[in-house]
Amino acid sequence: QLQLVESGGGLVQPGGSLRLSCAASASGFRLDYYAIGWFRQAPGKEREGVSCISSSGGSTRYADSVKGRFTISRDNAKNTVYLQMNSLRPEDTAVYYCAAGPSCLRNNYNYWGQGTQVTVSS
Questions:
Q1: What is the DSSP letter of 25?
Q2: Residue 74: which of 122, 117, 38 has the closest Cα?
Q3: pLDDT (0 to 100) of residue 49
Q4: Shortest CA distance to 54 belongs to which of 72, 39, 66, 28?
Q5: Burial zone of 77 (CB within 10 Å; 0-12 exposed, 13-18 middle, 19+ buried)
Q6: How far apart are CA 83 and CA 120, in angstroms?
Q7: How many Cα atoms are found within 13 Å in the side-chain-facing hemisphere of 108?
Q8: How far apart are CA 56 and CA 45, in angstroms?
C-alpha cells in the first residue's frame, strides 16, 4: 500500500519561508500516478485544502488564503511533491498533510501522510 511521508516543517517567524516535501515512503510506489494535494489543520479549525497538483504537474490549484504566497510543484523523477511557502503568517500555523488521489477535481484522496507541524510565531 502506498505510504506518504511529509517533511520540512518547523518553527519560522512571520514573513519567513519553508519548503515542505511529500514522498512515497516505500520503494516501488510511484507518485506520478496520482494527483497530490496539500491540506492543513490548525488548532480548533476544520481541515482545509491548501493546494493540489495534477499527476503530470500540468495543473495546479490553490486556496484563496495562500494564493500568491505558496507554490506547489513536483519532480516525478525524484518521486517528490513540494510546497514552497513564502511570506508566512501566524494563521498558517497548522499540521500540514499531503494526500494522493486520482484527480484534483474530485474529493477522493486515498492515501495520506502523518503530517508535519508548521508553526509561524515571533
A1: S
A2: 38
A3: 96
A4: 72
A5: exposed
A6: 16
A7: 5
A8: 31
Instruction: Return d(Cα 105, Cα 43) in angstroms, integer.
Output: 27
Amino acid sitting at position 103: S
Q: What DSSP state is assigned to residue 57?
A: S
Please give the torsion angle defined by the CA atoms of residues 52, 106, 45 and 9, in that order, rounded to the nearest 10 degrees: -30
Reported residue count of the chain is 122
Nearest alpha-carbon partner for 120 in 43, 63, 49, 21: 43
Q: Distance (Å, rounded) from C-alpha 92 to C-alpha 103?
A: 25
The pLDDT tens digits of the residues spanning 62-97 come to 999 999 999 999 998 999 999 999 999 999 999 999
